[in-house]
Each structure stands twice: as C-alpha cells, then as structure tokens.
From TrEMBL:
Record's signal peptide: 1-18
Domain Beta-lactamase-related: from-to ranges: 46-361
Keywords: Signal
Keyword Magnesium annotated: no
InterPro entries: Beta-lactam-related, Beta-lactam/transpept-like, Beta-lactamase/esterase
Cited Gene3D superfamilies: DD-peptidase/beta-lactamase superfamily
Record has Signal as a keyword: yes
Residue ranges of the TM segments: none
Species, as recorded: Adineta ricciae (Rotifer)
This protein's name: Beta-lactamase-related domain-containing protein
Pfam families for this protein: Beta-lactamase
Amino acid sequence: MYTYIWICFFLVIPCIFGNNYELNIDGATANGWEFVRELFRENFVDERDLGASLAVYHQGNLVVDLWGGWFDKLKSKSYDNNTLQIVFSTTKGLVAAAVALCVQRGLLDYSELVINYWPEYGQNGKENTTVADILSHRAGLPFDFSPFDDYLNWTLMISKLEQSQPVWKPGTAHGYHALTYGWLAGELVRRVDPKNRTLGEFIRNEIAKPLQIEFYVGLPSEQEYRVSPLDLKPNQTSFDDFNKNSTHRAEIPGANGITNARSLARLYAGLIGNVENNHYQRILTEDILKRAIKSNTPSHEIDFVLNVTTTFAMGFFLLDDLFPSLGPGIFGHQGLGGSIGFAVPAKNLSFAYVVNRLDTQTIDIDHRYKSMINDIAQMINRNHATNLIDSFSFRLLTFSCFVFYVIEFILH
C-alpha cells in the first residue's frame, strides 16, 4: 500500500509542478524587482536556457542577482553562484574599458595615429589608421582566416595584423571586426602599459581588482573547473574550440572573456558611477566616459561585414535602437549566443545576462531578455514619474504653507 502511495507521489508531483524542482534557481532580488525572477524562471521552464546567470545594478546597488539551471547538458551539477562562463564578444566591452582607462591616464589618445604607439603597424596602407578607427571597427581588417590554433598565439596574430592589407581605406567605412578587434585594441594597451603587462594582466590589475569582479581574458588554470561548457547543437561544432582549456587560457580578447552576470553588471555600473554605497569607486571619469561612448559611425552607414546598420563608439556597441524603452545613451556589448552586458547612464542602470546554451539564430534582441528589459524600463519610468509627482506635491505643499504664513503675518 505504502509503495503504491510513494509511486503515485513521484508521478503526480512532476505533473503538478512541471520541472520547477529541477530548475535550481537561486539568488536574490530587491523589493520591487521580484518580477525579474519570474521572467528568469520562465526561460528555464520553456527550455530556452540550460544554465544562466542574471544581474542588475540600479542606483549603484545590486538589485537582481540570480542564477539557475544546469552546469552542463548531462545535468551533472547545478549552475550556481560559483560558475563562470565564456561570453564571446561581450568581452569587447571590457577591452573598450581598458583602452578608455589608458586614455584617461594620458597613455593613449583616440585621435592619434596608431603608428605613434605601434610603429610596426604602419604597413601596406595602414599608416593613417587612428586609435578611433580600431576602436570603432573602421580599421579595414575585419577578417582573419587563420587556423584556430594560431589564435592562441598572441605574437603570431600581432605579426599577421601588422603585415595585413586593409579591405578598405581605414576610416572610410566600418565593418564588424569579430576577432581582430581584440588583438588590435589589446596590442595598443600592451604597447603603452608602463608595466609591460599582457592585456589580461592589465585588466585583472586595473579593472577587475578595483571593482572586485571576475572577468578573465586568459583564465588561470586553477579556475578551469568552474567554467560551464557551452551547450552546442549538432550544427554548432565550429564553436567546439571554445570549450577547450587551451582556448580559455589564451588571450583572445575579441571573444574569449570568462565571467558571470554579477561581475559583468558591476563592471558597467562601475563605468557610470560609484558602486555599492560608494564602496567601489567608478573606473572612468564622466568626461572620459562621454568620449568613450560617443558614436564614431556616420548616421545610417551600413556595416560592411554584417550588411545592416550598426553604431559603434570607442569599442562599445551603442544599443539605443535595440532597447528604445530605456531611452537614449545605452552602451555595452552583446556576445554570440545570448550573453550581454550594458549600461544606461541616464537611468543609473546596468544589466547583464550570461548563458551556456547558445542561440545563434537571433539577430537583434535575444528573446530570453527582451521582455525582461521592457518590464524593467516600465518599472523605472513609472517610479520616476511617481517621484516627480511626489516632488512636485511636496514643493506645492511647502509653497502653500509659506503663503499661508505670509498672509497670517500680514493680517496680524
């Protein structure tokens, strides 16, 4: 009899609750942000996500910090607070921050010629390339067809780029430099760094450590066990190399950054202001940030590589057209498959979503966070409107009291 009851229990519970007991969703949300957890949960219920993390900073504080699902497709362990993830081109935003920090310190200037810092670059029609050309994908070197093993060798890739001939005259057009952007921008940082560090070391010491985040370009081998493998479909075997330890240890700054959503969101929060009640100071000054996120793409210019209109600042992808509900001034970067990190200075908001299940079909906004961002925008706009009304009501009340006392004084 008892055996029958237990069998019924284990058959009925999954029918009632679906797979909720297997979602492993954990973390916290601040008051008023609980709806984000529900939207995050739906991505697992609908199997859009296998494992993922999500974080939001607002007004300098962490208001959403969630993770859930499974570390791998065998579901051998949970995707948890300790999990790290490769985020592909989302890394480009971190590289842009590193270059901006060099500009802030007077080591680089966006308007200067690259050859002033990197003389060997001035070959085969690249002599007049500016730092801004490299950062805004106008350098004319968008393609590289080297064997993947060559990507693991920084010196070799730099030598190839030095000798390459641009596809177009630098500065006259733009086209997405999917991999070459990272070596081009990274070599500039390496060339001007007084301590002669690699780009990965510069990032760890000058950005990650001050903000107390984990964002690796060149993963230490002792952290490899924490990296969730990419969940690839049979037609995605071309990305198999990004699951290899050797790829994680290398510095491929256009594509192999490894992080989590909390660190990614804090990076962007730390670019636009102080973080965690001023415990962590902002990385860039207001002036340098404005220069770093100013568009360097002529209006409606078609991307030579992607064949659509894209807008780039100094390494940052400008996202106003993708997230109109958040208003203007959005900057950040997406990564192949679904990861993203961005900031909205006007809202004092940063958002990050990191995934192990790749969606390579979506062209613009990943459906995993599209409605989530719209709902966040509505909440912030609604709260802002309420605050304006409250502020106006308070000022009106204060003014009415003042008038009342003036009249009382005159009458008496």
